[in-house]
Every structure is written in C-alpha cells, then in structure tokens.
C-alpha cells in the first residue's frame, strides 16, 4: 500500500457584518485559514470579487504554494547535486482566465522567476538545469492542471 499524508486546515468566515449573506454586497469575504497550533492566515477574496486587498486571497495562496514547493524541491535537488545555494528568492506570477460566460475562471498558468545565488561559477549551469527536473517530483506541480513556466537565474555570491 502506498504511503499517504493528510493535511487538515480549517476555514473560519469572519465576514458577517450583521445581516449575513442577505445580499451579495452586504457581507465581507474576510476569513481566516487555520491549522493546528499555527498562526492564522488572514484571507479574503480577490479585490475584483469584493475582497479585502490587505488580506491573502485563494489565487495568491495557490501561486505561493506552487512557488514554495518548487523552492523546497530545488533546494533538495541542489544539495543532492552538490550545488551550494546560499540565497533563493522568487517573484512568481499566476494568471487566472475568466470563462466567456462571466461566472467562473481558472488559473491557467504560473511563471516562476527564481533568483538563486550559488558559491561557485561551476554550479550555475547545473543550478539552472535543476529547475526543469522539479515538475517530475514536486507534489503541487504534479497536482495542478495548468502549466508552470520557469525563468531561473543563477549567479555567484
């Protein structure tokens, strides 16, 4: 039997402004994302859908999740390949495309832009190449149905 892991989170809607959902415009999309013993994540809808721009929205969290999984696997593969990474950052971008009927949409692509600093010039080529192998092993990348593009840049400390 295959090994499995479970992940439990709770969502707590905090946006009842006194009249519940009596109309589309009279309630807040504010909510918290909770998981055992962790600080809550203040979240809302995208501002385009009446959400609070000061809170995380589900689309941002999905893009962040893709970027996090990519980074964690990159660091793992780098260690295995003898690439010494001393800094990593990513300015990821996701695109949601609305359907023609106007009622829904879906994330259609994510572009990752990892900026990686390594300790030796001889590691740059390998570091850049490792990004192409991550889709095979990253749990999140293997779970989504949209393309994930990579625009990596490695440099020396």
Automatic annotation (TrEMBL):
Source species, domain of life: Bacteria
UniProt xrefs under SUPFAM superfamilies: OsmC-like
Pfam families: OsmC
UniProt name for this protein: Organic hydroperoxide reductase OsmC/OhrA
Lineage of origin: Bacteria, Bacillati, Actinomycetota, Actinomycetes, Pseudonocardiales
């Amino acid at each position: 039997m295959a090994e499995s892991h479970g992940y439990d989170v709770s969502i707590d809607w905090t946006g009842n402004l006194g009249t519940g959902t009596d109309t589309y415009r009279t309630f807040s999309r504010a909510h918290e994302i909770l998981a055992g013993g962790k600080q809550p994540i203040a979240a809302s809808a995208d501002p385009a859908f009446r959400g609070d721009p000061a809170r995380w929205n589900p689309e941002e969290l999905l893009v962040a999740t893709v970027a996090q999984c990519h980074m964690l696997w990159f660091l793992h593969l780098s260690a295995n390949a003898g690439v010494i990474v001393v800094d990593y950052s990513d300015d990821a971008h996701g695109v949601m495309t609305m359907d023609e009927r106007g009622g829904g949409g879906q994330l259609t692509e994510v572009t990752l832009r990892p900026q990686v600093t390594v300790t030796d010039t001889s590691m740059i080529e390998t570091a850049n190449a490792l990004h192409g192998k991550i889709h095979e092993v990253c749990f999140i990348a293997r779970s989504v149905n949209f393309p994930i593009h990579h625009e990596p840049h490695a440099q020396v400390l």
